[in-house]
Design brief:
This protein has helices at residues 5-19, 71-79, 127-137, 152-163, 169-176, 203-215, 237-247, 276-303, 337-352, 384-392, and strands spanning 22-27, 41-43, 65-66, 69-70, 84-87, 111-113, 119-121, 140-145, 187-190, 226-229, 253-260, 310-318, 357-363, 373-376, 379-382, 399-400, 403-406, 409-412, 415-418, 420-426, 432-438, 445-452, 459-465, 482-485, 489-492, 495-500, 504-510. By secondary structure, the chain is of the alpha/beta class. Strands 2-5-8-9-10-11-12-13 form an eight-stranded parallel β-barrel, surrounded by five helices. Strands 16-20-21-27-23-24 form a six-stranded antiparallel β-sheet, with helices on one face. Strand 3 and strand 4 form a beta hairpin. The termini are far apart. Bound molecules: alpha-L-arabinofuranose (AHR).
Length: 511
Protein backbone atom coordinates (compact mmCIF):
# COMPACT_ATOMS: atom_id res chain seq x y z
CA UNK A 1 0.00 0.00 0.00
CA UNK A 2 1.35 3.40 -0.90
CA UNK A 3 1.24 5.91 1.98
CA UNK A 4 0.56 9.58 1.32
CA UNK A 5 3.84 11.57 1.23
CA UNK A 6 2.99 13.63 4.33
CA UNK A 7 2.43 10.49 6.34
CA UNK A 8 5.73 9.05 5.13
CA UNK A 9 7.55 12.23 6.19
CA UNK A 10 5.81 12.21 9.56
CA UNK A 11 6.87 8.60 10.15
CA UNK A 12 10.45 9.45 9.14
CA UNK A 13 10.51 12.44 11.48
CA UNK A 14 9.12 10.38 14.33
CA UNK A 15 11.68 7.64 13.73
CA UNK A 16 14.59 10.06 13.66
CA UNK A 17 13.52 11.53 16.97
CA UNK A 18 13.17 8.21 18.71
CA UNK A 19 15.95 6.23 17.11
CA UNK A 20 18.59 8.78 16.18
CA UNK A 21 21.85 7.82 17.82
CA UNK A 22 24.28 9.88 19.74
CA UNK A 23 27.75 9.46 18.27
CA UNK A 24 30.82 9.31 20.47
CA UNK A 25 34.46 8.98 19.48
CA UNK A 26 36.99 8.20 22.20
CA UNK A 27 40.55 8.79 21.06
CA UNK A 28 42.16 6.11 23.17
CA UNK A 29 45.61 6.54 21.65
CA UNK A 30 45.76 10.27 22.38
CA UNK A 31 45.81 12.47 25.45
CA UNK A 32 48.59 13.75 27.63
CA UNK A 33 46.90 15.56 30.50
CA UNK A 34 46.46 13.92 33.88
CA UNK A 35 43.14 14.22 35.70
CA UNK A 36 44.43 15.26 39.10
CA UNK A 37 42.92 13.17 41.87
CA UNK A 38 42.41 16.47 43.67
CA UNK A 39 39.47 17.21 41.35
CA UNK A 40 37.67 14.71 43.59
CA UNK A 41 38.33 16.80 46.71
CA UNK A 42 35.98 17.92 49.46
CA UNK A 43 35.17 20.96 51.54
CA UNK A 44 34.07 20.90 55.19
CA UNK A 45 33.36 24.01 57.21
CA UNK A 46 32.40 24.80 60.78
CA UNK A 47 28.80 25.11 59.62
CA UNK A 48 25.70 23.37 60.97
CA UNK A 49 26.41 19.70 61.56
CA UNK A 50 29.27 19.30 59.14
CA UNK A 51 32.10 19.25 61.67
CA UNK A 52 30.15 18.75 64.90
CA UNK A 53 28.01 15.64 64.57
CA UNK A 54 29.24 14.99 61.03
CA UNK A 55 32.84 14.13 61.83
CA UNK A 56 33.39 15.06 65.44
CA UNK A 57 31.44 13.35 68.19
CA UNK A 58 34.08 13.51 70.93
CA UNK A 59 36.02 10.72 72.56
CA UNK A 60 33.29 9.90 75.09
CA UNK A 61 30.53 9.47 72.51
CA UNK A 62 28.69 6.13 72.26
CA UNK A 63 29.03 6.55 68.47
CA UNK A 64 32.07 4.44 67.46
CA UNK A 65 34.97 6.85 67.02
CA UNK A 66 38.73 7.11 66.90
CA UNK A 67 40.01 9.96 69.06
CA UNK A 68 36.60 11.65 68.75
CA UNK A 69 36.19 11.24 64.97
CA UNK A 70 33.37 8.96 63.84
CA UNK A 71 34.53 5.72 62.22
CA UNK A 72 31.59 5.22 59.86
CA UNK A 73 32.13 8.58 58.13
CA UNK A 74 35.88 8.00 57.83
CA UNK A 75 35.35 4.56 56.29
CA UNK A 76 32.74 5.85 53.81
CA UNK A 77 35.09 8.62 52.65
CA UNK A 78 38.03 6.23 52.35
CA UNK A 79 35.85 4.05 50.12
CA UNK A 80 35.59 6.89 47.60
CA UNK A 81 39.33 7.65 47.91
CA UNK A 82 38.89 11.18 49.20
CA UNK A 83 42.10 12.91 48.04
CA UNK A 84 41.95 16.16 50.02
CA UNK A 85 39.82 18.06 52.48
CA UNK A 86 39.47 21.85 52.65
CA UNK A 87 38.91 23.36 56.11
CA UNK A 88 37.89 25.38 58.25
CA UNK A 89 35.83 27.47 55.77
CA UNK A 90 34.33 29.10 53.78
CA UNK A 91 33.22 32.28 55.40
CA UNK A 92 34.13 30.81 58.77
CA UNK A 93 37.82 30.81 57.79
CA UNK A 94 38.11 34.60 57.76
CA UNK A 95 36.75 34.79 61.31
CA UNK A 96 38.68 31.84 62.70
CA UNK A 97 41.64 32.37 64.99
CA UNK A 98 43.51 29.10 64.98
CA UNK A 99 45.14 29.58 68.35
CA UNK A 100 41.69 29.30 69.95
CA UNK A 101 41.57 25.72 68.68
CA UNK A 102 44.74 24.23 70.19
CA UNK A 103 45.72 23.04 73.67
CA UNK A 104 43.50 21.44 76.28
CA UNK A 105 39.94 21.31 74.95
CA UNK A 106 38.45 22.31 78.27
CA UNK A 107 40.49 25.51 78.22
CA UNK A 108 39.85 26.60 74.65
CA UNK A 109 38.01 29.91 74.37
CA UNK A 110 34.58 29.91 72.76
CA UNK A 111 33.46 32.11 69.89
CA UNK A 112 30.25 32.99 68.08
CA UNK A 113 29.86 31.54 64.61
CA UNK A 114 28.31 34.70 63.21
CA UNK A 115 27.96 33.43 59.65
CA UNK A 116 26.25 30.19 60.41
CA UNK A 117 23.33 30.41 62.80
CA UNK A 118 25.03 32.55 65.46
CA UNK A 119 25.78 29.42 67.46
CA UNK A 120 28.55 29.18 70.03
CA UNK A 121 31.60 27.38 68.73
CA UNK A 122 33.58 25.73 71.52
CA UNK A 123 36.67 25.16 69.41
CA UNK A 124 36.89 21.52 70.44
CA UNK A 125 37.67 20.65 66.83
CA UNK A 126 40.84 22.54 65.89
CA UNK A 127 44.13 22.11 64.06
CA UNK A 128 45.20 18.83 65.72
CA UNK A 129 41.77 17.26 65.30
CA UNK A 130 41.55 18.31 61.65
CA UNK A 131 44.98 16.98 60.80
CA UNK A 132 44.21 13.76 62.69
CA UNK A 133 41.05 13.46 60.57
CA UNK A 134 43.10 13.85 57.37
CA UNK A 135 45.55 11.20 58.57
CA UNK A 136 42.67 8.83 59.32
CA UNK A 137 41.22 9.52 55.87
CA UNK A 138 44.61 9.18 54.18
CA UNK A 139 43.97 12.46 52.37
CA UNK A 140 45.84 15.73 51.99
CA UNK A 141 44.80 18.67 54.13
CA UNK A 142 43.92 21.99 52.54
CA UNK A 143 43.87 24.76 55.15
CA UNK A 144 42.37 28.17 54.45
CA UNK A 145 43.99 30.96 56.46
CA UNK A 146 42.28 34.06 57.80
CA UNK A 147 43.10 37.11 55.69
CA UNK A 148 39.81 38.93 56.35
CA UNK A 149 40.09 39.53 60.09
CA UNK A 150 43.38 37.89 61.06
CA UNK A 151 46.90 39.26 60.95
CA UNK A 152 49.83 38.35 58.76
CA UNK A 153 51.68 37.23 61.89
CA UNK A 154 48.81 34.90 62.84
CA UNK A 155 48.73 33.23 59.44
CA UNK A 156 52.50 32.97 59.29
CA UNK A 157 52.62 31.34 62.73
CA UNK A 158 49.96 28.82 61.76
CA UNK A 159 52.14 27.62 58.87
CA UNK A 160 55.12 27.44 61.22
CA UNK A 161 53.09 25.57 63.87
CA UNK A 162 51.97 22.81 61.55
CA UNK A 163 54.94 22.40 59.20
CA UNK A 164 58.21 23.46 60.89
CA UNK A 165 60.44 20.61 62.02
CA UNK A 166 63.19 22.54 63.80
CA UNK A 167 63.18 24.42 67.07
CA UNK A 168 60.98 27.52 67.11
CA UNK A 169 58.34 29.07 69.36
CA UNK A 170 55.53 27.62 67.25
CA UNK A 171 57.00 24.15 66.72
CA UNK A 172 57.71 23.94 70.46
CA UNK A 173 54.13 24.90 71.20
CA UNK A 174 52.98 22.13 68.85
CA UNK A 175 55.18 19.66 70.72
CA UNK A 176 53.78 20.84 74.04
CA UNK A 177 50.34 20.12 72.60
CA UNK A 178 51.29 16.55 71.88
CA UNK A 179 52.55 16.47 68.31
CA UNK A 180 56.29 15.94 67.94
CA UNK A 181 56.64 15.77 64.17
CA UNK A 182 55.26 18.42 61.85
CA UNK A 183 52.46 17.53 59.47
CA UNK A 184 52.74 17.79 55.71
CA UNK A 185 50.39 20.54 54.58
CA UNK A 186 50.79 21.52 50.96
CA UNK A 187 47.55 23.29 50.07
CA UNK A 188 47.20 26.68 51.74
CA UNK A 189 44.39 29.12 50.98
CA UNK A 190 45.16 32.79 51.55
CA UNK A 191 41.67 33.98 52.44
CA UNK A 192 38.23 32.94 51.20
CA UNK A 193 35.68 34.93 49.20
CA UNK A 194 37.45 38.16 50.08
CA UNK A 195 35.16 39.92 47.61
CA UNK A 196 32.31 39.09 50.04
CA UNK A 197 32.25 37.50 53.50
CA UNK A 198 36.06 37.55 53.65
CA UNK A 199 36.30 41.34 53.98
CA UNK A 200 34.33 42.85 51.07
CA UNK A 201 37.53 43.83 49.28
CA UNK A 202 38.08 45.08 45.77
CA UNK A 203 40.20 42.89 43.53
CA UNK A 204 43.06 45.42 43.60
CA UNK A 205 43.04 45.65 47.37
CA UNK A 206 42.88 41.88 47.76
CA UNK A 207 45.76 41.34 45.35
CA UNK A 208 47.92 43.67 47.46
CA UNK A 209 46.87 41.93 50.67
CA UNK A 210 47.52 38.53 49.14
CA UNK A 211 51.09 39.51 48.28
CA UNK A 212 51.75 40.60 51.87
CA UNK A 213 50.17 37.57 53.57
CA UNK A 214 51.57 35.03 51.14
CA UNK A 215 55.10 36.40 51.55
CA UNK A 216 55.13 35.24 55.17
CA UNK A 217 53.58 31.82 54.52
CA UNK A 218 56.92 30.02 54.35
CA UNK A 219 57.77 26.66 52.89
CA UNK A 220 59.72 24.94 55.68
CA UNK A 221 62.09 22.08 54.86
CA UNK A 222 60.58 19.92 52.17
CA UNK A 223 57.05 21.15 52.87
CA UNK A 224 56.55 23.12 49.68
CA UNK A 225 53.38 25.19 50.02
CA UNK A 226 50.93 25.40 47.13
CA UNK A 227 49.32 28.78 47.84
CA UNK A 228 45.81 29.38 46.61
CA UNK A 229 44.53 32.92 46.12
CA UNK A 230 40.89 33.89 46.44
CA UNK A 231 39.44 33.83 42.97
CA UNK A 232 36.26 35.07 41.36
CA UNK A 233 32.65 34.69 42.30
CA UNK A 234 31.16 32.90 39.28
CA UNK A 235 31.46 35.09 36.21
CA UNK A 236 33.46 37.96 37.73
CA UNK A 237 36.11 37.96 35.00
CA UNK A 238 37.62 41.27 36.04
CA UNK A 239 38.55 39.74 39.44
CA UNK A 240 40.50 37.02 37.64
CA UNK A 241 42.15 39.57 35.36
CA UNK A 242 43.26 41.76 38.28
CA UNK A 243 44.55 38.95 40.47
CA UNK A 244 46.38 37.25 37.59
CA UNK A 245 47.97 40.58 36.64
CA UNK A 246 48.97 41.66 40.14
CA UNK A 247 49.79 38.42 41.91
CA UNK A 248 51.27 36.33 39.10
CA UNK A 249 53.76 33.70 40.22
CA UNK A 250 53.25 34.37 43.92
CA UNK A 251 50.29 32.02 43.82
CA UNK A 252 50.11 28.44 42.61
CA UNK A 253 46.33 28.29 42.46
CA UNK A 254 43.41 30.63 41.93
CA UNK A 255 40.05 29.57 43.31
CA UNK A 256 36.63 29.73 41.63
CA UNK A 257 33.29 29.40 43.40
CA UNK A 258 30.10 28.55 41.56
CA UNK A 259 26.95 27.12 43.13
CA UNK A 260 23.98 25.65 41.26
CA UNK A 261 20.88 27.48 42.48
CA UNK A 262 17.76 26.36 40.57
CA UNK A 263 15.65 29.51 41.09
CA UNK A 264 17.20 32.58 42.72
CA UNK A 265 19.03 33.40 45.95
CA UNK A 266 15.85 34.52 47.73
CA UNK A 267 13.86 31.38 46.95
CA UNK A 268 16.32 28.77 45.82
CA UNK A 269 13.81 25.95 45.47
CA UNK A 270 13.23 22.71 47.35
CA UNK A 271 15.78 19.90 47.36
CA UNK A 272 13.14 17.20 46.95
CA UNK A 273 9.90 18.79 45.72
CA UNK A 274 10.58 20.00 42.18
CA UNK A 275 9.10 19.60 38.73
CA UNK A 276 10.66 19.03 35.33
CA UNK A 277 11.10 22.72 34.72
CA UNK A 278 13.06 23.07 38.01
CA UNK A 279 15.13 20.06 37.00
CA UNK A 280 15.86 21.51 33.57
CA UNK A 281 16.90 24.83 35.04
CA UNK A 282 19.14 23.08 37.61
CA UNK A 283 21.01 21.24 34.86
CA UNK A 284 21.20 24.35 32.69
CA UNK A 285 22.80 26.27 35.55
CA UNK A 286 25.19 23.41 36.21
CA UNK A 287 26.34 23.45 32.59
CA UNK A 288 27.34 27.08 33.10
CA UNK A 289 30.37 25.66 34.91
CA UNK A 290 31.84 24.74 31.53
CA UNK A 291 31.55 28.33 30.33
CA UNK A 292 32.98 29.71 33.58
CA UNK A 293 35.97 27.39 33.56
CA UNK A 294 36.62 28.07 29.86
CA UNK A 295 36.42 31.85 30.15
CA UNK A 296 38.49 32.13 33.36
CA UNK A 297 41.04 29.77 31.77
CA UNK A 298 41.26 32.00 28.71
CA UNK A 299 42.16 34.96 30.93
CA UNK A 300 44.64 32.85 32.88
CA UNK A 301 46.21 31.65 29.61
CA UNK A 302 47.12 35.23 28.75
CA UNK A 303 49.16 35.69 31.92
CA UNK A 304 50.22 32.09 32.35
CA UNK A 305 50.42 30.33 28.98
CA UNK A 306 52.38 27.48 30.54
CA UNK A 307 49.45 26.76 32.85
CA UNK A 308 51.53 26.78 36.01
CA UNK A 309 48.70 28.28 38.05
CA UNK A 310 45.86 25.88 38.72
CA UNK A 311 42.21 26.84 38.63
CA UNK A 312 40.91 25.51 41.94
CA UNK A 313 37.12 25.13 41.99
CA UNK A 314 37.09 24.84 45.76
CA UNK A 315 33.37 25.42 46.26
CA UNK A 316 30.71 24.00 43.97
CA UNK A 317 27.44 22.12 44.25
CA UNK A 318 23.70 22.60 44.60
CA UNK A 319 22.23 25.11 47.02
CA UNK A 320 18.50 24.81 47.86
CA UNK A 321 16.19 26.08 50.57
CA UNK A 322 16.99 24.29 53.82
CA UNK A 323 14.84 21.32 54.79
CA UNK A 324 11.64 22.55 56.47
CA UNK A 325 12.01 22.77 60.25
CA UNK A 326 15.83 22.93 60.24
CA UNK A 327 17.98 25.90 61.29
CA UNK A 328 18.21 28.25 58.26
CA UNK A 329 21.83 28.97 59.18
CA UNK A 330 22.81 25.29 58.99
CA UNK A 331 22.23 24.80 55.24
CA UNK A 332 20.94 21.26 55.65
CA UNK A 333 19.36 19.86 52.47
CA UNK A 334 18.35 16.45 51.12
CA UNK A 335 20.04 15.05 48.07
CA UNK A 336 18.24 13.33 45.19
CA UNK A 337 19.07 11.72 41.87
CA UNK A 338 19.01 15.29 40.48
CA UNK A 339 22.05 16.08 42.66
CA UNK A 340 23.81 13.00 41.36
CA UNK A 341 23.27 14.25 37.78
CA UNK A 342 24.64 17.68 38.80
CA UNK A 343 27.72 16.07 40.37
CA UNK A 344 28.35 13.77 37.41
CA UNK A 345 28.09 16.64 34.90
CA UNK A 346 30.37 18.91 36.95
CA UNK A 347 32.99 16.18 37.37
CA UNK A 348 32.91 15.45 33.62
CA UNK A 349 33.50 19.18 33.04
CA UNK A 350 36.43 19.30 35.47
CA UNK A 351 37.97 16.18 33.92
CA UNK A 352 37.67 17.72 30.47
CA UNK A 353 39.44 20.90 31.66
CA UNK A 354 42.11 19.11 33.68
CA UNK A 355 44.86 21.01 31.86
CA UNK A 356 43.85 24.01 34.00
CA UNK A 357 41.55 22.66 36.73
CA UNK A 358 43.89 21.10 39.26
CA UNK A 359 41.51 20.74 42.18
CA UNK A 360 37.81 20.93 42.96
CA UNK A 361 36.01 20.61 46.29
CA UNK A 362 32.33 19.83 46.60
CA UNK A 363 30.43 21.90 49.17
CA UNK A 364 30.15 20.29 51.64
CA UNK A 365 31.04 16.73 52.61
CA UNK A 366 28.65 16.00 55.50
CA UNK A 367 25.22 17.45 56.38
CA UNK A 368 25.65 20.76 54.51
CA UNK A 369 24.55 21.73 50.96
CA UNK A 370 25.33 19.00 48.39
CA UNK A 371 26.54 16.54 51.01
CA UNK A 372 27.82 13.09 50.13
CA UNK A 373 26.98 11.90 53.65
CA UNK A 374 24.09 12.69 55.98
CA UNK A 375 24.15 11.82 59.67
CA UNK A 376 21.66 11.96 62.50
CA UNK A 377 23.22 10.96 65.81
CA UNK A 378 24.45 7.38 65.21
CA UNK A 379 22.68 7.02 61.83
CA UNK A 380 24.40 7.63 58.51
CA UNK A 381 23.05 7.73 54.93
CA UNK A 382 25.08 7.89 51.73
CA UNK A 383 23.50 10.27 49.24
CA UNK A 384 23.13 9.78 45.46
CA UNK A 385 26.02 12.26 45.10
CA UNK A 386 28.21 9.91 47.17
CA UNK A 387 27.64 7.17 44.60
CA UNK A 388 28.83 9.44 41.80
CA UNK A 389 32.16 9.81 43.61
CA UNK A 390 32.19 6.06 44.05
CA UNK A 391 31.74 5.51 40.30
CA UNK A 392 34.09 8.29 39.20
CA UNK A 393 37.05 7.45 41.45
CA UNK A 394 38.50 5.49 38.48
CA UNK A 395 39.41 8.83 36.87
CA UNK A 396 41.70 9.89 39.72
CA UNK A 397 45.24 10.45 38.33
CA UNK A 398 44.29 8.81 35.01
CA UNK A 399 45.11 10.29 31.59
CA UNK A 400 42.29 12.27 30.05
CA UNK A 401 41.27 10.87 26.65
CA UNK A 402 40.02 13.38 24.10
CA UNK A 403 36.45 12.65 23.02
CA UNK A 404 34.05 14.06 20.48
CA UNK A 405 30.35 13.70 20.95
CA UNK A 406 27.39 14.61 18.84
CA UNK A 407 24.40 14.46 21.14
CA UNK A 408 20.65 14.51 20.79
CA UNK A 409 18.92 17.38 22.53
CA UNK A 410 16.85 17.32 25.67
CA UNK A 411 14.16 19.95 25.13
CA UNK A 412 11.75 21.67 27.43
CA UNK A 413 9.65 24.79 26.91
CA UNK A 414 11.58 25.72 23.78
CA UNK A 415 15.00 25.35 25.43
CA UNK A 416 17.53 22.70 24.45
CA UNK A 417 20.53 21.15 26.11
CA UNK A 418 22.69 18.20 25.08
CA UNK A 419 21.10 15.03 26.43
CA UNK A 420 24.40 13.21 26.84
CA UNK A 421 27.45 14.35 28.77
CA UNK A 422 30.76 12.47 28.89
CA UNK A 423 34.40 12.23 29.89
CA UNK A 424 36.92 9.42 29.43
CA UNK A 425 40.32 8.44 30.78
CA UNK A 426 42.94 5.72 30.69
CA UNK A 427 44.44 4.50 33.97
CA UNK A 428 47.94 3.25 34.77
CA UNK A 429 46.92 -0.35 33.94
CA UNK A 430 45.67 0.72 30.51
CA UNK A 431 41.99 0.36 31.38
CA UNK A 432 39.69 2.90 29.76
CA UNK A 433 36.86 4.43 31.76
CA UNK A 434 34.01 6.34 30.18
CA UNK A 435 31.52 8.16 32.39
CA UNK A 436 28.28 9.08 30.64
CA UNK A 437 25.29 11.01 31.89
CA UNK A 438 21.89 10.85 30.25
CA UNK A 439 20.43 14.16 31.40
CA UNK A 440 17.15 13.54 29.58
CA UNK A 441 14.42 12.95 32.13
CA UNK A 442 12.10 11.08 29.81
CA UNK A 443 13.99 9.30 27.04
CA UNK A 444 16.59 6.60 26.92
CA UNK A 445 19.56 7.56 24.75
CA UNK A 446 21.38 5.18 22.53
CA UNK A 447 25.07 5.99 22.03
CA UNK A 448 27.18 4.53 19.26
CA UNK A 449 30.80 4.78 20.34
CA UNK A 450 34.00 4.27 18.44
CA UNK A 451 37.16 3.54 20.38
CA UNK A 452 40.00 4.76 18.25
CA UNK A 453 43.53 3.41 18.60
CA UNK A 454 42.72 0.48 20.85
CA UNK A 455 41.45 -3.06 20.51
CA UNK A 456 38.77 -3.58 23.11
CA UNK A 457 38.55 -7.10 24.51
CA UNK A 458 35.85 -6.70 27.08
CA UNK A 459 33.47 -4.26 28.64
CA UNK A 460 31.73 -3.96 31.99
CA UNK A 461 29.80 -1.18 33.61
CA UNK A 462 27.92 0.25 36.56
CA UNK A 463 24.84 2.43 36.61
CA UNK A 464 23.32 4.91 39.03
CA UNK A 465 19.66 5.72 38.52
CA UNK A 466 16.27 5.41 40.18
CA UNK A 467 12.57 5.32 39.35
CA UNK A 468 12.01 9.02 40.06
CA UNK A 469 14.33 12.00 39.71
CA UNK A 470 13.43 13.16 43.21
CA UNK A 471 14.24 9.82 44.86
CA UNK A 472 16.68 10.07 47.75
CA UNK A 473 18.26 7.94 50.45
CA UNK A 474 16.93 8.51 53.93
CA UNK A 475 18.02 7.00 57.24
CA UNK A 476 14.93 4.77 57.09
CA UNK A 477 15.41 3.79 53.41
CA UNK A 478 19.13 4.24 52.74
CA UNK A 479 19.35 2.28 49.46
CA UNK A 480 16.72 3.82 47.19
CA UNK A 481 19.34 5.33 44.87
CA UNK A 482 22.39 3.12 44.47
CA UNK A 483 24.83 1.55 42.07
CA UNK A 484 23.97 -1.57 40.07
CA UNK A 485 25.72 -3.57 37.35
CA UNK A 486 25.08 -2.21 33.87
CA UNK A 487 24.58 -4.70 31.03
CA UNK A 488 23.42 -2.46 28.19
CA UNK A 489 26.80 -1.83 26.57
CA UNK A 490 27.63 -4.18 23.68
CA UNK A 491 30.91 -4.53 21.82
CA UNK A 492 30.71 -5.73 18.27
CA UNK A 493 33.29 -5.41 15.49
CA UNK A 494 35.16 -2.71 17.41
CA UNK A 495 31.99 -0.63 17.86
CA UNK A 496 30.35 -0.03 21.18
CA UNK A 497 26.60 0.47 21.52
CA UNK A 498 25.33 1.81 24.80
CA UNK A 499 21.71 2.22 25.83
CA UNK A 500 21.49 4.80 28.59
CA UNK A 501 18.20 4.81 30.49
CA UNK A 502 16.60 8.19 31.10
CA UNK A 503 18.18 10.21 34.00
CA UNK A 504 21.09 7.88 34.55
CA UNK A 505 24.83 7.90 35.13
CA UNK A 506 26.90 5.09 33.69
CA UNK A 507 30.55 4.21 34.21
CA UNK A 508 32.04 1.85 31.63
CA UNK A 509 35.32 0.00 31.93
CA UNK A 510 36.93 -1.16 28.70
CA UNK A 511 39.82 -3.63 28.74
O1 LIG B 1 29.58 26.74 51.49
C1 LIG B 1 28.86 27.73 52.16
C2 LIG B 1 29.44 29.12 51.95
O2 LIG B 1 29.35 29.47 50.61
C3 LIG B 1 30.91 29.27 52.25
O3 LIG B 1 31.15 29.47 53.60
C4 LIG B 1 31.28 30.49 51.46
O4 LIG B 1 32.63 30.48 51.08
C5 LIG B 1 30.33 30.44 50.29
O5 LIG B 1 29.69 31.65 50.08
Amino acid sequence: MKRPILLQLAILGFCSQVFSQNKLVVNADQGGETISRHIYGHFSEHLGHCIYGGYWVGEDSPIPNTRGIRNDVVQALKDIQIPNLRWPGGCFADEYHWMDGIGLRSQRPKMVNTHWGGVTEDNSFGTHEFLDLCEQLGCEPYITGNLGSGTIEEMSKWVEYVTFDGESPMSNLRRQNGREKPWKVKFWGVGNENWGCGGNMTADFYAGQYRRYATYCRSYGDNQLYKIACGPNGGDYSWTETVMKNVGRQMQGLSLHHYTVPNNWTDKGSATRFNESDYFSTVEKTLLMDELVSKHSTIMDRYDPQKRTGLIVDEWGTWYNVEPGTNPGFLYQQNTLRDAIVAAVNLNIFNTHCDRVKMANIAQTVNVLQAVILTDEEKMALTPTYWVYYLYKVHQDATLLPVSLSSNKYELNGKKIDAVNVSASKDAQGKIHITLVNIDLNNAQSVEAELRGVKANGISGKILTSAKINDYNSFESPSVVGVKDFKDAKLSGGKLTIKLPAKSIVMLEVE
